């Protein structure tokens, strides 16, 4: 009888742990899948979009380049000013030293990806190295292994975010097909959304804002927002929501990561749509 | 000349040191394969790690290669952790018996070993099955690892043989080497046994950590260094320490469950008292191993971040982050169970009641710390839930989800767990020293200042950048250690010459014993979970960044799938342990001698 009691008790304890593991969010992480990409017919807009997918996917850049402060938050920084100030930093001794403009940005970003320690942004070096060694891995080596075309795409994306015209070459048809980031259960890549209503549904905007008849009131009413805010102000309110707070509302309520989660094209579509609400 | 009592121990030390030196020399001095290959015109060593296509992985009878290897590896690890840990504290207990001249310690140490003996062959069986499965299902990987570690596997086999020999001699010579100087000889054998056991574990850890943080090879996997360089990779020592401490905690918990079962099953008061004492000692060993474990885990994780920030973030902030919520639940369960058992122990002494009013405050801290630890930072929510909550993080509870709060919670839980133990320890001692009041005041001050420092450093963690946030955990750890170590030292002086009161071993409720069953179940499940996390950190690599896993099962399974597998392995392990306990009991069972049969009647008598 003692044995049965002890066994039943132990089994019950095991079941509690098992059930708990099964009620948590279930995520399966798949390895990157090699896919062919029609690089021969790619234009620069496609290259930038490809670069963004790599930045968020295979490149694993957003693991560190996010708002948590492990690395510069590339998706929310003013890259134009930021890149310029890094190149002007006396501590910078890379190949783009003394240069300015889009081409200098390209050189700087490329060397940052292939030799991250060549310049370490102050405060982001490995602990105990006085910002002389970067914790960032080379992106053209395992485990990331971006190809030349893929690195060009990431550079194009970051140049675009920095407000300069991408200077990287488009891939020719002869170049080997580039690897496409894997679709994982965590970040299933179904491509950017193309309908503003879908974007609003996908990111849950109407849950807090009165939008498309939702009558939600946690955030400001967005009916007729186009008459009150400019395109720039609307965009800023999405990717940096606490920069300006509407009267009667508190900061810290709207998620801070839409700038990271949204595609550039989605953000533009959403801003266009909201600006049209008059 | 009569040999002094230290000489056998000294001799054993020499033997142990020689053994380690021989092993190190053998691994380090093995022929350099690059040079050997050059001599022989071969390029085996300079070739990189093999590139394996999906079709190169054998499929056998539709079995899942990964699950089979996973189950066998975990089973081997559970058993190995147990059989390596028990001789460690068995030797310590034996030493206590010798020093205090208390035969009870010696009997208990012997009983510890009795359980280990039955488990040992199962460990070897699981290890052999694991090796077979690895060679069957992952031949290219095993071929590559053999190329990297060369003759070290032979040394491993040699050590395994030596482990068997010393284990058997240690156990079977117990009664032959029981008293006087012979006892020191016996303990020297025990020391040798533990030295060999630990070396075995360190060697195997070298293989496991090489797969996570390869060293001694270039980016293609070609061998560029010695076996020693491959073994001494960046994660080797952190894992060695972590497993060493975890093994002690685990072994203590398993033996505690054995004692609890025996306590519940026994009717004889003297035997119940013995098993109560054994359960208490085992729980003490488990907590002793467990208290520094979070710090060893912290070091391991810091080294993982240092080796590869990507790998660290995958663990703590990526796809595996939710697992640490389960880890928190399991560790919280262990803490609650261990404390509950200690509180129940207050009923063993007549002065224990004096401390009972404080238990509820300790309980509040332990449960409060547990709740903070399980609070996640960011939740996956539906839009309507976001609206109700007012954001993706709860305004009040969200801040409890980040590291400063977790560190504060775990340090306070450790401090108050130690306080539970200290209350029981004091309950059977009445201080008579003049230093006692002053010592008590210093201990109070240590607790108050230490806890304020832990909380203060936690608050500082909120208002400082990430880099310093991590640094803020150091003073917290130091505060915890100062409280524990300081209190122990002061109590030694404070209770010198103290009047001891009777501890009524066996005066425990049956319910309290169930806490000792929770510990091994939670520990076993936790070890399975952490094994899953450690392996998953390699993501889709057999050997991280060097040899890619292209098998059909190269994905990281969901928490639910992993949980189900871990539960099945734990059930298997429990079944083995029940059998082992039964075997160790069977050895003591004596069949009653048959009644002498009356002499057979003769034919003449029968005729009458």
Describe this structure in words.
The complex is a heterodimer of chains A (278) and B (608). Chain A is mainly alpha-helical. Helices cover 40% and strands 0% of the residues of chain A. Chain A has helices at residues 2-23, 44-56, 79-88, 101-114, 148-161, 196-203, 225-228, 231-239, 258-261, 264-275. In chain A, helix 4 packs across helix 5 (148-161). Chain B has 608 residues and is an all-alpha fold. In chain B, 71% of the residues lie in helices and 1% in strands. A two-stranded antiparallel ribbon of chain B has the order 1-2. The model of chain B is unreliable at 1-9 and 22-42 (pLDDT under 50). Chains A and B meet through helix 1 of A and helix 9, helix 12, helix 13, helix 15 and helix 20 of B.
Short description:
Chain A is an all-alpha fold and 278 residues long. Chain A is built from ten helices and no strands.
* Helical residue percent band of chain B: over 70%
Oligomer: heterodimer
Question: What is the number of domains of chain A?
Answer: 2
CATH architecture of the largest domain in chain A: Orthogonal Bundle
Q: Per the principal axes of the C-alpha atoms, what is the gross shape of chain A?
A: globular
Uncertain runs of chain A: 176-189
Distance between the termini of chain A: 77 Å
Q: What would you call the structural class of chain B? A: mainly alpha
Q: Work out the largest interface and the residue count of each chain.
A: A-B, 52 and 64 residues
The computed structural class of chain A is mainly alpha
Uncertain regions of chain B: pLDDT < 50 for 5+ in a row? 1-9, 22-42
Number of strands of chain B: 4
List keywords for this structure.
heterodimer; A: 278 residues; mainly alpha; Cytochrome Bc1 Complex, Chain D, domain 2; 2 domains; 40% helix; B: 608 residues; two-stranded antiparallel sheet; 22 helices; 4 strands; 71% helix; globular
Blueprint (SSEs and pairs):
The complex is a heterodimer of chains A (278) and B (608).
Chain A: H1 2-23, H2 44-56, H3 79-88, H4 101-114, H5 148-161, H6 196-203, H7 225-228, H8 231-239, H9 258-261, H10 264-275
Helix pairs in contact in A: 2-5, 4-5, 6-10, 8-10
Chain B: H1 7-28, H2 33-40, H3 65-100, H4 103-137, H5 139-149, H6 152-172, H7 180-212, H8 227-231, H9 236-265, H10 269-290, H11 293-307, H12 309-316, H13 323-344, H14 356-374, H15 383-389, H16 403-427, E1 429-430, H17 436-462, H18 466-471, H19 473-494, E2 499-500, H20 510-536, E3 541-543, E4 547-548, H21 559-586, H22 603-607
Antiparallel strand pairs in B: 1-2, 3-4
